[in-house]
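Students often ask why we bother encoding 3D structure as a string. The short answer is that it lets us treat folding as translation between two languages. Here is a chain of 745 residues written in the first language.
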Amino acid sequence: MIRYLLIILSSLFISINSYSSDTIQKILVSGNDRVSSETIKIFSEVDVNSKIDNDIINEITKKLYETNYFNNVLIEYKNNILKIIVNENPIIQNIYYNGVKSKKLRQQILSNVNLKKRTSFSKYLLNVDKEIILQNLQKKGYYFSDIKISKKNFENNKIDLIFDINLGKKTKIEKITFIGNKIFKDKKLRNVIISEEHRFWKFLSNKKYLNQEIINFDKNLLRNFYLNKGYYDIEINSTFAKMTNNQNFELIFNIDAKNKYFFNDIKLKLPPDFNKDNFENVTSFFQKLKGAPYSIFSIEKIIEKLEVISIQEEYQSVESIVNEEIINNKINLQFELQETEKYFVKKINIYGNNVTQENVIRNQFEIDEGDPYNDILTKKSINSIKSLGFFKEVKETIIKDEDNKTKIININVIEKPTGEILAGAGIGTSGGSATFSIKENNYLGRGIGLQALATVDENSLKGKFSVTNPNFRNSDKSIRLSLESLETDLLDTSGYKSNRTGFTFGTNFEFLDDLNLGIGQSSYFEKISTNSSASTRQKSQEGNYWDTFVLIDADYDKRNQKYQTSEGFRSFYSLDLPLVSDTNTLTNTYNFTFYDELYEENVSSISFYAKVANSLTGDDIKLSERLFLPGNKLRGFEQGKIGPKDGNDYIGGNFISSVNITSTIPQILPNSENTDFVLFMDVANIWGVDYDSSIDTSNKIRSSIGFGVDWFSILGPINFSLSQALSKTSTDKTETFRFNLGTTF
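And here it is in the second language, the structure alphabet:
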């Protein structure tokens, strides 16, 4: 059988090549209507007097089909005449996509289709587009979608295409399973990834739907998590989904984490002309890492430090290379700084900013046209642009000119809406609250933030309008101005009522890495009134006040992340210095918090808080400037009902301080990934009465222990706490149970 087939193919080959040495004397085109004969000849890339053979004929046919203008092409050659006979594809007049109401979803699923209006129809591309749309729908969680395609014919070989899309129900993730995970608890890994299991209270979340793009990202998140825990050879072998009985999916991650690796010897190799003393801080960090679990985060941190020092020392053309040597389960590292060929920035181009002014984007650049090109500063600049929050997407393209030794930086942005309307409400054991806010983050495209805010709770009513310019006159300093009116009614608890109206003006700037400084001025007019039961000393403070303060603060933030912090610390200090004041009250505030992940599923923190208020002239400070402990600094006690008393009124103190220790505990309930359980101990004190030495300041330490639950529910964050006071005074008011609920919508 094979032999006969070979004979037939050989005969066919001989017959086809019978004109292999012929020359074309004439070309005839037929069957065409819209496409001219000359255009078809150009597409065929042959001309009179061209040689013709079987390969050339096949090539002509291929080229004409590739134009997508024709659904049939026939090539005939006889008597030195080449005949090209075509049948043209219809022209697409309109394309309708029915069944998808969401404009955003339509854009996403149609982003890379081939067929367009006023182009030639192609059956092949039609099938390709159908598959593209189905695949895009699956990426968005629509695994049960279906598409039916129909055509409507018109005169002059024109058609309409109709895509009838049945989305079906969005596929939910019923369960997330980790196969091969023997090191970390599944709850911990679920907190690492974005995808989450479907629960009835998560009806507002899109994370519960099966999304292939998110799953791929989850895979990278898991890999990086293990790499940061020392598992150098981690493999996420496969990620797949299995359908459950109710047509939802079980999302399965297959994890292969082998041995744990540790840092061993870490060295730094510098170019000969580099000063080693400049890198002493980095090399001292090497010793701290020796014996610690391998971590790509630590490596990236070292590279960042090396790059920062290189910039500071004006080593412009430098790149970091990391060499690894593995010996058993230990890793030796060598960080090598290499000088690279110097390029200069020829041009910085910005595209896509229709609303945002170009200077707002350019101000984020730490490199300018004409400067030596620096990849570190360029990346840092791109991140600054992204952090503005004005853009859905920021893409950079670097064009290198080898001859002129220059580079062109192209920035493409896609803008997003920057206005916000927020409303919130909350209720707790201390009363209810409500908030309404209107905010614009990019006013007139200048990066200026505007906000109007109103809040009301059990004891106060507040209205505030603020303006913030994050880069005032291209100075890299933020300028803020706020107008505020506050009414505080504490007649029942502290014997007075305050009405305050004023403004605050200030600036913030980055002084050093992770250190921000602020300076400003606050001026306000205040009216204080008391009730009939107030003491004589309290009534003496009735009247009107005008005060102006200089505000100074320093914020040193070394947390690994601002939300759900697991390691690092934050140190904050502020000073309110009276400039023109009726009472000349000087206020100092200091807050320090340290975080550490002591073991798996545990984050512990210790916080120290202190605040002091005293008059520089020895006068009595105002009732409204006296200090009360914030509710979260001393749980187990009623807020505002501890400390010195004047008669029946709690009047606050001149000094407050607290130490708070908090430690999370493993999940005690199934499917409780949105719930944190904590143990806490609070130690605090409030003391000092400057205007009456006869008042018992009760300079005694208060303390409490307790158990808390933080639940991120569909209604918003809900906090429960059970506390037991360990030490108190006879006048302190305690509370065993406290809860707070609040949300923004």
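Translate back mentally: The mean pLDDT is 83. Keep this in mind for the problem set.
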